[in-house]
Amino acid sequence: xxxxxADAHRREWGFVLAxxxxxxxxxxxxxxxxxxxYAQALRVxxxxxxxxxxxxxxxxxxxxxxxxxxxxxxTLTRLLPMLVADDVVDEPELPEDGEIPDDRLRLICTxxxxxxxxxxxxxxxxxxxxxxxxxxxxxxxxxxxPTMAARITRAKKKIAAAGIPYRVPSAAxxxxxxxxxxxxxxxxxxxxxxxxxxxxxxxxxxxxxxxDLARILRKLLPADQDVAGLLALILLTDAxxxxxxxxxxxxxxxxxxxxAAWDRAEIAEGVALVREAxxxxxxxxxxxxxxxxxxxxxxxxxxxxxxxELVGLYDVLAQVxxxxxxxxxxxxxxxxxxxxxxGLDELDRLGDEPQLATYAYxxxxxxxxxxxxxxxxxARTAYQEALVLTDNLVERRFLLERVAALDAL
Amino acid sequence: MGQYLVLLYESExxxxxxxxxxxxxxxxxxxxxxxxxGAKIAGGNALQPTATATTVISDGAGGFTVxxxxxxxxxxxxxxxxxxxxxDLDEAIAISKDVPAGFGGVEVRPxxxxx
Lengths: 409, 115
Fold this sequence. Notes:
The complex is a heterodimer of chains A (409) and B (115).
Chain A: H1 2-24, H2 27-48, H3 54-72, H4 74-79, H5 104-111, H6 118-129, H7 134-140, H8 145-162, H9 174-193, E1 197-198, H10 204-220, H11 225-238, H12 264-277, H13 285-298, H14 307-320, H15 324-338, H16 340-348, H17 360-372, H18 376-389, E2 391-392, H19 393-408
Helix pairs in contact in A: 1-2, 1-3, 1-5, 2-3, 5-6, 6-8, 6-9, 7-8, 9-10, 9-11, 10-11, 11-12, 11-13, 12-13, 13-14, 14-15, 15-16, 16-17, 17-18, 18-19
Chain B: E1 2-11, H1 12-16, H2 20-37, E2 41-46, E3 54-58, E4 64-68, E5 76-86, H3 89-96, E6 104-110
Antiparallel strand pairs in B: 1-5, 1-6, 2-5, 3-4
């Protein structure tokens, strides 16, 4: 039973909270009522069995609890700064088997509002949409619990006091607001995919949450190609999860990964989404990044990878999303399509980019091309530059082993 | 419906170098803003430059220090404000985008309501 409740917590927290906020028009009160509903579920489901629609049961229970509290203490409603909502639910009694409207897009857009600090958007999304505790959110971003608690409290206060509305943005505003939401989900994913610091390469919890969020957005916005693109990107990258380190935790490059162990179901789902996302002209940033991941995912081996196709995709990506990191990846693909000298020339052109000055991958990629060209002394220096620039212990170990291999030659 | 104070922060040096024609066109832009959002504007004023400002600070013991100059010295200084009515922050931001503040930008602050 505890497992069923935990599962409902993971799957339905955002749905139940979003529907409850509409009744309370206060986030803290709604959170309390939803927590209460989950506590009741543990007891009641034990007695009567798991309801056929757990989300509906939890929502009804949480909303009834909210109404009790609001009726008992009518001053509560006047003292709290109310959230601005365009259609307040006056008759919150839900029909026994009716559809509960899915309010999660309101909740997500409120959490990711551009008037909130970026780090607060991420924290609120994890807390309110994914239902993580403040302790868990703090751990995910390696900050102390009081710091994270203060960050979340400050953001909630701003939502209420500044009048950040609890509603789906107008059609004119929606694309920009969805971009902000996708940026939060993408940040969660990249932070989880390669942890900036620490002894593990990845943080699986963050990757899973980003995948959950991308799936929710896909359900809410089925026609949005940027959403399809981001979900595809996460699936296609995450499909390699099991093969990115070896049995001893050593980093394995794409070239050395055991492709048979890639998650074929995730790849198939991702590839189908990429096809859909690429239909828009010009394709979006996430769609193109996902298409690049798809080329790797479908290649039978590193050697048989379609490097010309990758260079072409990076060319388009550089147009819709110009960034030094894209230029770097394009240079690497070029090095495999036309030989290490071509790749090195391209990377050397990027040496002055300030954004890449502290980016370990530039030095590491140069080192690899230099080694392929037989310029091992320069390769050694480049690996050592990369070592200075990363604090991820798995990446550091990989680079140290490369230096040692060159020393042994 | 709530009230928001839209504070105009602009470069005073840029303002001091403006010629008459530009000054006139900025004035007209403010008139146009007033015409477009008249129903939402509850008040507003332009302020004299910070060179005319006087700062008064209590020393906590009944005395005051009175000094020449603004409370905070900054490149962009508070030069005026509008008090607007808006349903929520999204509407307040939408209105603020129409406020002429070419030499800087605006800050949107909700008015505190005491119950």
